[in-house]
Amino acid sequence: MSKLRDLYAPSLLIVIGLIIWELIARAIGMSFILPSPIEISRKLWELKGILFFGHLPATLGVILTGLSLSIILGVGLAIWMNTSKIAEKTFYPIIISSQTIPIIALAPIFVLWFGYSIWSKVAVTLLITFFPITVSTFDGLKSSSKEMRDLLLTMGASKKEIFLKLQVPSALPYFYSGLKVAVTLSVIGAAIGEWLGAQAGLGYFSRRMMTQFDGAGVFAPIVLLSAIGIVLFLLVALLEKFTLKWRKTI
C-alpha cells in the first residue's frame, strides 16, 4: 500500500498537466502546432497498425542493438582500464572528451558512412550510451575496498578471485546506475538517427508527419518513444532489484 501511495503525487501531477495541456491546446486552436492530448490519443489509435507493426520494431532493433554493443564494449573497456594503468591513461581522457562532440552533428556523417541502414542509427545510439556505462562501471570497479582487497590477498586469493568476489559486486550498483541512464539515452539516440536519415522507425515517421503539418502525427510516435524509455528503465530497475538482493542483508 505504501508503494501505491507513493504514486499518488506524480500521478496527480501528470493528470493536472494533461488537463492544462488540453485546455491550452483548445484555446490556441492550432492543432498542427500544439495538438491536444485527446487528438494525440486519437491519432495514436488511428495509426496503431503502422506504428506498432511497421515502425516500432525498427526502432526497438536500433535501441537493443546499440545498447547491447554499448554494454559489451563499455564493460570490456572499463575492465581493461581497471587492470591496466596504460589503458586508463590512454582511453579515459578520450572517453571524456568524446562527450564534448554534439551527437546531432555526427549523425549525418554516420548516414554518409553507413547509408540508411540500421548501422547509422546504431552508431548514434552506441555513441550516446557508451559513456555512462563505461564510466559508471569503471568507477564501480575502482570503488572496491582496499582493506578488503589486502585481506583477501593475505588469505591467498588470486587476482581472478579478487575480481569476481570483490570488484564485480562493488561495481554492479554503479553499472546499473549507468545502465539506467543509458537506456533512456538510447531512445534519444535512436530517434536522432532516424530523424536525420532512415527509411523506417518512430523518429522517421515523426519527421514525415512534420512535413505534412500533422501535429498529432508528430506527437504520436514521440509518445511511443517515451513509453519505450520508461519500460526499459523499469526493466533495468527490476533486474537490479533481482540481482542485488544481497545488498538488503548488508
UniProtKB/TrEMBL annotation:
Entries under Pfam families matching the protein: BPD_transp_1 (PF00528)
Topology in membrane: Multi-pass membrane protein
Keywords for this protein: Cell membrane, Membrane, Transmembrane, Transmembrane helix, Transport
Keyword Transmembrane tagged: yes
Location of the protein in the cell: Cell membrane
Domain ABC transmembrane type-1 residues, every copy: 56-243
TM region(s), chain numbering: 12-34, 54-79, 91-116, 122-141, 174-198, 218-239
Family from the record: Belongs to the binding-protein-dependent transport system permease family.
Full protein name: ABC transporter permease
